[in-house]
Amino acid sequence: MAKKTVATLQTASKRLSKAIKMVKSPKTGAYTFVESIMSPEEVDSFLKKK
Predict the structure, then answer these.
(1) Bigger pLDDT: 12 or 42?
(2) How confident is the model at residue 30 (pLDDT cuts 50, 70, 90)?
(3) pLDDT of 7-25, one tens digit each?
(4) Does the predicted model carry a pTM greater than 0.90?
(5) Angle made by CA atoms 22, 50, 19, in degrees to the nearest 5
(6) Residue 47's pLDDT is what?
(7) What string of H, E and C letters represents the secondary structure of 14-29?
(8) How far is Cα 28 from Cα 36, in angstroms, rounded to an integer?
């Protein structure tokens, strides 16, 4: 179960996206958030990997 949020960020010369993924910890069972800023083409691969 992963919740995904994608926001689009625009800078002067590049277009970037910020992806936030909710990941469940195998040890404690608690959820944590993993954030990353990347190009829009890389967002799908970021959200698919565990």
Answers:
(1) 42
(2) very high
(3) 666 656 678 889 999 999 8
(4) no
(5) 45
(6) 86
(7) CEEEEEEEEEECCCCC
(8) 23
* Rounded Cα distance, 21 and 23, in Å: 6
Q: Both tokens of residue 6?
A: 């994608």
Kindly report the backbone phi and psi dihedral angles of residue 8, in degrees, each rounded to the nearest multiple of 5, phi listed first.
Answer: -95, 130
pLDDT at residue 12, as a whole number: 61
Nearest to 22, CA basis, from 4, 42, 44: 4
Question: Side chain identity at 18, as an amino acid letter?
Answer: K
**What are φ and ψ of residue 44, in 5° steps?**
-60, -45
CA distance 45 to 36: 12
